[in-house]
Amino acid sequence: MVYWSTLLLAGLAASGAHGTPVEVARRATPTVYLAGDSTMAKTGNGLMGWGEYLAQYITLPVVNKAIAGRSARSYTEEGRFSEIEQLVQADDIVVIEFGHNDGGSPSSASDNGRSDCPGAGDETCTSGKTGATVYTFNHYVEAAARSFVAKGARVVVSSQTPNNLWETGTFVYSVPRFVGYAAAAAEHVGAGASFVDHFQAVADMFLKLGSAKTNALYPQDHTHTSPEGADLVAQAFVEAVGKRFNGTTALDSYVKSPLPAVF
Ligand SMILES: *[C@@H]1O[C@H](CO)[C@@H](O)[C@H](O)[C@H]1NC(C)=O
């Protein structure tokens, strides 16, 4: 009886104004899962990741699974993508954003467990510390994306955020290789995956904000933002999605209006 009531309630919730329960198995609203590092995660002590602000600008519930210090490799090896794979249902959306902790060389004796094998294909490296095989950023991200798409979910591969581009008082930046890798990952996965250049959107926003305002968003170092900075970085993401900056993503129809205008 309890089971039946739950089904009926779910059906009514999904049926809108007409009141005829249909498709009770499918949830009315997709859930957005976030996979990333500290720049996306719920952190603290005067800092915050942008994933905590996303729900304010879209019409979907957000589950922030980003964790500080992780790379595409360590997020994979710790089973964190697998955990999301267990959770996702058809129509859910997973945003994957890594890069800050993915650089370096896994072949060195001091392999930190985070560095990916260089390249955007099926290159492999051997960990100089453990002897284990290490794969590329693309290998890890694409394997995760395919596992979500196989469950009927959609994936948005997002490029990493930039560091403080006004750190020296002059606006200078070069695009990290992981931005191109992220774009390639979405292309390689194909149907069900899309790309948004969050790096470029935030860079454009910082250029517009100028030196003083941008520097004020980085209270401790050049990577981690204040809560105010995280809110703006979330707005840049949503603006890029809403403007179809790099094509149409699965989040396209869930952006609240008015669209943020930060860049
Ligand atoms: C994404 O689109 C923006 C706006 O057109 C562009 O500046 C940027 O280079 C694109 N990113 C990639 C990786 O193609």
From TrEMBL:
Region (Disordered): 103-123
Domain of life according to the entry: Eukaryota
Gene3D superfamilies: SGNH hydrolase (3.40.50.1110)
Keywords recorded for this protein, A-Z: Hydrolase, Signal
Residue ranges of the TM segments: none
Pfam family, one: Lipase_GDSL
Signal peptide start and end residues: 1-19
GO molecular function: hydrolase activity, acting on ester bonds
Family (UniProt): Belongs to the 'GDSL' lipolytic enzyme family.
PANTHER family (UniProt xref): PUTATIVE (AFU_ORTHOLOGUE AFUA_2G17250)-RELATED, RHAMNOGALACTURONAN ACETYLESTERASE
Protein name listed in UniProt: Carbohydrate esterase family 12 protein
Organism whose genome encodes this protein: Thermothielavioides terrestris (strain ATCC 38088 / NRRL 8126) (Thielavia terrestris)
